[in-house]
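S1.2 Input.
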Amino acid sequence: MKLTHSQKKTLEEAVKTYNQSLSLAEDYLSKRGLTVQDGNRFLLGVVNDPLPGHEVYKGRLVIPYLTRTGVIDIRFRSIDGNDPKYLGLPGATTHLFNVTSLFKAQDWIAVCEGEIDTITLDLKVGFPTIGVPGANNWKKHYYKLLADFEKIVIFADGDQAGQDFARQLAKELGTVTIISMPDGEDVNSIYTKHGLDFFKEKMKVE
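S1.3 Output.
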């Protein structure tokens, strides 16, 4: 569903407001190998003083979905262990995360699950990356966005859902390289344990 100018303006104002409180997530980001400055690159924030209607999101990490024309969605992630892990805006549909990488990438692009993993691969590892908010949220028309790339590298989570997701994309696209995380691991957990070396070595091997 296409957002109206008023809806986009409301989202952008929310992102700007919550970004000012990002320092409240410093400990959470640090455990993920990220800094507040890294988070600012993606306009992350924290719901400290909720805007009207956002009371349910208080204390959550704000993850805006940005395009070249502005903010199209916001997801709210728990950073204190409370469930559910993610909450979305009422009536929102899922989108790809970090789509601006589609315009930065050249002959290849990476795909992974989750926003924090995407930020890690794109910003810290240096691979142009788009993210899917969960293996079950891939949509058929996303294939068209990847059609022009010579190579697509999927960094698959080390669980059954991640492996199934990677195999399905490989079946549909045919130009896919799958790099699987060890059992029970994802991109960010591996990065925090091993840094860049794991990913650089995997790319050399593949």
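S1.4 Remarks. The beta strands are 45-46, 61-67, 70-77, 86-88, 108-113, 129-132, 151-156, 176-180.
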